[in-house]
Design a protein that fits this description.
single chain; mainly alpha; flat
Amino acid sequence: MRPKLTKDISVESFKDFYWLKEELQTFCRKNGISASGSKIEISNRIETFLQTGEIKKPVRKLKAKKIEQQVDLSLDTLITENHRCSQNVRAFFKTVLPKFHFSTYIQSYFKNNVGKTYRDVVDAWNKEEERKKDPSYKNNIAPQFEYNQFIRDFFSDPKNQGKSREEAIEAWYTIKKLPGNNKYTSNN
């Protein structure tokens, strides 16, 4: 049985169970902890609070003053540290790549490739599109998306062939109520 998320919960119990981001944010608000940031950042602040009683402030990234996006974007435009995936940028890439959208892969590419050009982005997009044609291709699922990973792994298990999405979701609801990790195993 999953315990209630209160300031009296042990760190071990907190880490053993799955919590919705909304539950974590509610806990933070009740205990004077910042509820902003990713689920992982919020969980880390709660864990520190439960261990030490310390209320950690979120790490704020200094944002440069808002700079208007370049009006004249080209394949030679450089990716800067303050790059934004804006409508202007999307419109530019759609002129070069008609099916372009800000996928997780491309957003990560922008974030991790400061100094490269939009031409490099086009190359990266095309390479990713080629990889997607491989039947064994699977995009990476970020660690905070435990549900998505569970559902993918559920349907990857040969013993679940022919099972419905509802059955996968039911299995997810069962596993997330139990202590321990929420990864799918064929024993679930």
